[in-house]
Amino acid sequence: MDEIRCPMCGKSNPADLEACQFCRARLKPLVVSPDSGAQEPLRPGVPPVRQITSHLEPTLPDWLQSLRHGEAGQPEESAEPQSRAADEAPEQPGEPEDIHAERSPEEGGSTPATDTDFQEWLASLRQQEEVEAVLPVEEEIPPQEWEGEARPVTSGEGLDWLEEMRAEAGKVEMVDEAQEEEEAAADLPEEVEEEPDWLRRIRSRQQTERLTQGEPAEWLEEHAADEAQAPVEEGFRRLQLASEESFELVGEDQPVGAGAADTIPPFIEGELSMAGEPTDWLAGVALTEKGQAAPTEEAMPEEGSLAQVELPSWLEAMRPLEAPRRGRPQVEAGQVEASGPLSGLRGVLPFEPGLFQTKKPSTPEFNLRVSENQSARAQALEELIKSEGVTQPLPARPIVTSQNLLRIAIFLVLSASIIWSIWRSGSAAPRPEFSPDAFAVGSLINRLSNLAPVLLAVDYEPALSAEMEAASAAVLDHLLLKGASLAIVSTVPTGPTQAERLLSEVVRRGNHSPAVASQHTNLGYIPGGAGGLQAFAQSPRQVTPFNVHGVSAWEGGIMQSIDSLDDFSLVVVITENPQTARAWIEQVKPNMGNTPLIMVVSAQAEPLVRPYYQAYPPQVQGLLTGLQGGVSYERLNARPGPAYRYWDAFSLGLAVSALLIVFGGATNAILAFVPIPKRLRPQGKA
Amino acid sequence: MNLANLSLADLAGTLISFFLTLMVFSYALGDNVLFRLTVHIFVGVAAGYAAVVAWYNVIWGQMFLPLLDGGPAQLLYISLPLSLGFLLLFKASSRLTILGNPATAFLVGVGMAAAVGGSVFGTIFPQIGATINLFDLEAIKQMGVSLWSRLGQGSLILIGTMASLIYFHFGARSRAGQAPQRQSWIENLAWVGEVFIAITLGVVFAGVYSSALTALVERLYFVGDVLIPLVLIP
Amino acid sequence: MRGSLSPIIALLVGFIVLLGYLLPFPFLMEARQALLHWAMILAAVALIVGVMNLALAHWRKVATDQKGGIYSAVLLLSLLLTLGVVGYFGPTGSWSLWLFRYIQVPIESSLMAILTVALAYSAARMLRQRINMFSVLFLLTALVILLGTAPLFGIEVPGLHGPDGIREFLAQVPAVAGARGIILGVALGTIATGLRVLMGADRPYGR
Asked: Which of C43, C91, C112 comes nearest B107 by C-beta?
């Protein structure tokens, strides 16, 4: 299969394709069919063929002809008519001065190329006086000076050249010179500003007529129609008038001064024939009455209103199939600028800011060249980014795991051992011997006299009521045996209730008399932690004026003699919290004087309370710890209590727990050095 | 426990306690609805109990009763805690919580001052004195213990106390290109202190376990006290 | 200026309370006592505010039909029931005691009992998580204390049990040394934190 190489990307494509399959550029250039009468497409680098228009010289006005003949090689003088015309133009109000004032012969728009054409045109005009018939001339004619005055054109002559022009139009092929046309259009503003009036006048004549189509310009037709009626002299007079006065150059729809229409400079004609295109830029130039150039709306051809411009093949090949479409800015026609340096001009951008609504340019549509692999990766990345904000559901945890099984096993083993001990009953475990700590507490309580006021602080939470009741029951029992008057206080909200419950249990278990049980005053709850204890230590009457029943606590019984804490014979604190124990030691002990302090603490608080007990001088005079301390004290008093009841099961439970910890710890220590198989690893862990 | 001797209220209470105990023990199988229900019941009852006790023992008796029965001096005395207490109520509102800041500041100021004073005069001075007095020969004589064993114990306690304190010193010097590091003698003493702290925390852990085991024993005894009569009766 | 009222209050009252530790002047002692008493009363009000906050939080959960709203409803119901019963009969009334004895104590004791399983499990797995000298020493000490607290299957092991055993030595010498260092450190930290709060460097009470 034949292949064709793309002029843009260089890749091979099948020959039957119109556009490249990779970059969408046109593979085959656009070529105008011979039937349309178009010339061969212009290739880049091929110079245009110059056309000679010397046969139009007779139509020039006298002054122009005189210029051509008398001023050859004098560019400054050739610019004089321009300046003369410019000076003769009446000043228009609001006219920008810089356009006319700054116009100098050098800036009169006379470019070297224009001067050359102008001289040629002048020379051709001279020759035409001698030549009756207008002959189509292909070869270049050397530039000639403009001599003499323009010969008035007779009607017959004018008609002849018109007919010849029509004939030529059929022969002249349209040359695809889009670039030159654009350049000419781009140069239009400068030329408009710098051109003399007469040249502007001439250019405004319908040079945009479609010569390639063989249709003469409208102005030519009008001229032909007019000339058919009016004598040539009349036309020449009009031209003279037109040259002397400032007059309006209008678009193609409006009649032009007939005189001016008679003369078409050959260089302009040549330019037209070279371009092969109707000069839109000439048609678009329109002057106001004030003689200023103002591009009309028609001068900006809109999309769709223009005939299709035929681009050269190489340019057309560069056009991508999906080229960005850009809209043209819409210029308001007819809006005359009233202020600023551009006053008087029509259709310019407004001076005041903010009148335009700037629009974001539309996003051009491009079709990128990406391979399948790249598009797949881009899609994967896009999905990855999207999934970042989406919460992933957690994997369902299995109900039965090894951890749950191990916990259940520990619970069952412990419970079984304790239940077995409970079921067995009887005292299998030996009771601990007398501990020095229990002995010290016993000694302190034994010193109490009958009805000695004792401050009892019940400061433990209900969670540890089992241990604390087992540890303190014997102490309470001993106090009741000694006939102590108890004043109960608590820094825990449930303390007063706990104390009542504890006391009732001790009384019931110890078979104490109800009268003894009633010898207590429940002072209630002391909030505030350390601050509340400090306040109670400073003034117990002020801080706890009433008991839990709402009755005044310090007006009856033994409490009448209590004014401060050192009036108590003993202070016993029952607590499971080391911080509470520390608060009692720090805040209350300094205000107790010589009153001893006994602490019944939980096993978990013992390490942090013992430094106070082992200090010298000791801050705590008696310390009893946990179930072991309770059992020891019950053995000391020979009055078994709850501590005795729980001791067997407790000791067996301790032994089984120690074995579980040893066995489990050893197993896990060994497993720590054994690598776990990959299939057994938890998800997400290495 | 003889269930037959219990009153109806106590019997109902005993059965309720039994089922509540089993519902809590169900946590051994894993978190479940029964356990959560029980915990929420406990929180509600504990909060309600604490609020009523605070009202009965403190607020009613020491704030509102003086308003009703007290003289001008008592009214003047109670005006400040009354107004601060009213401001403290705004702490329950998220929008007006700033109004309760003065009352909170009062509480915090008094509490912190009491804590600072207690720490200085109740812990630091006595404990430092106790550490020094470990080497008091007169005191050792009065104890009636062996001098050298007592001195040996005292030395061990002194070294352990200092090393434990130094372990909690985390000031380090930073050098260019190196991570901040304590001085070598501090590092060595901190290592010794870490040994003593490990032993102390081991004893604490054993104490916590003992307390929990005592609670388990008591609860299982209770469950047995309920179940055994029900099993033996038929 | 509005924001500096609370720190001024905290500084002023704290300064008076602290001075009372050092200067036993009668006027100062009376002012100090009044401040402590008022703080104690405000602490009770703060407890009530805390309970109100708890109720509001759970009420919002129930009212907005959030997940776990049924548990919040149970909590609110038990709270209201307790407030009614204990408020009517008093903290030491018979039904208050019934509520305390058959509802609160069993639940709290059971929660403490179930802690045994968790502690045993964590002790068994400790060496797997982190095995070094200090973790081994920690575990060994705990085992010695546990085994030395009660007879081992009815047998008192010489050297382990008794007042001269290793258990008593560990609890009375190295544990006391470490505990003394800890409580001294806690006391120093309390002093530093308290002075920072009193000087306004820390403001836990808000601006």
From this structure: C43
Three-state SS sequence of chain B: CCHHHCCHHHHHHHHHHHHHHHHHHHHHHCCCHHHHHHHHHHHHHHHHHHHHHHHHHHHHHHHHHHHHHCCHHHHHHHHHHHHHHHHHHHHHCCCCHHHHHHHHHHHHHHHHHHHHHHHHHHHHHHHHHHHHHHHCHHHHHHHCCCHHHHHHHHHHHHHHHHHHHHHCCCCCECCCCCCCECCHHHHHHHHHHHHHHHHHHHHHHHHHHHHHHHHHHHHHHHHHHHHHHHHHCC
Boundary of a domain, candidates C60, C89, C118: C89
User: How many C-beta neighbours within 10 Å does residue A580 have?
Assistant: 24
- Counting the structural domains of chain B, the total is 1
State whether residue C48 sits within 8 Å of chain A by CB.
Answer: no
> Is residue C123, in this structure, part of any structural domain at all?
no
Query: Tens of pLDDT along A212-238?
Result: 444 444 555 555 455 545 555 555 555
CA distance B82 to chain C (A): 9
The yes/no answer to whether this complex scores an ipTM above 0.90 is: yes
| Contact (CB, 8 A) for A214 and A169 | yes
Residue among B229, B127, B140 nearest A608 (CA):
B127
CB-CB under 8 Å, A530 with B57:
no
Q: C31 at the B interface (CB within 8 A)? A: no
Whether residue C103 is contained in a domain is answered as no
- Which residue from A253, A330, A250 is spatially nearest to A291, judged by alpha carbons? A250
Cross-strand pairs, A38: A174
What CATH code would you report for A436-639?
Answer: 3.40.50
In this complex, do B106 and C188 lie within 8 Å of one another by their Cβ atoms?
no
Interface check C167 vs A, CB under 8 A = no
Q: Do A495 and A526 meet the contact criterion of CB atoms below 8 Å apart? A: no
Give the other-Cβ count within 10 Å of C8's Cβ.
Answer: 14
Residue range of the domain that includes C165: 130-194
Burial A649-663 (b: 16+ CB within 10 A, else e): bbbbbbbbbbbbbee
Residue C190 included in any domain: yes
Domain housing B152: 136-234
Of the residues C63, C89, C115, the one at which a domain ends: C89
Residue A28: how many CA atoms within 13 Å on its side-chain side? 8
Q: C141 in a domain, yes or no?
A: yes
Nearest of A63, B142, B38 to residue C107 by alpha carbon: B38
* Candidates A417, A427, A465, A548, partner chain C, best to mutate (most C CBs within 10 A): A465
Is residue B214 included in any domain, yes or no? yes
User: pLDDT tens digits for A516-561?
Assistant: 767 789 999 999 999 999 999 999 999 999 888 888 888 878 888 8
- The phi and psi torsions of A89 (rounded to 5 degrees) equal -65, 125
pLDDT digits (tens, 9 = 90+) for B4-45: 778 889 999 999 999 999 999 999 888 889 999 999 999 999
- Digit-coded pLDDT (tens) for A98-151: 444 444 444 444 444 455 666 677 777 777 666 655 554 444 444 444 444 444
Number of domains into which chain C is organized = 2
Measured between beta carbons, the chain A residues lying within 8 angstroms of B47 are none
Decide if B125 touches A, using CB distance below 8 A: no
Instruction: List all residues of chain B from 28 to 57 with a beta carbon under 8 Å from chain A.
Output: 28-30, 46, 49-50, 53-54, 56-57
Cis omega before residue A617 (within 30°)?
yes
Nearest-neighbour CA in chain C from B215: distance (Å): 5
Question: How far is B221 from A97, CA to CA, in rounded Å?
Answer: 117
* pTM of the predicted structure, to 2 decimals: 0.66
The phi-psi region of residue A77 (left if phi > 0; otherwise alpha if psi is between -120 and 50; otherwise beta) is: alpha
CB < 8 Å from A in window 191-210 of B: 200, 203-204, 206-210
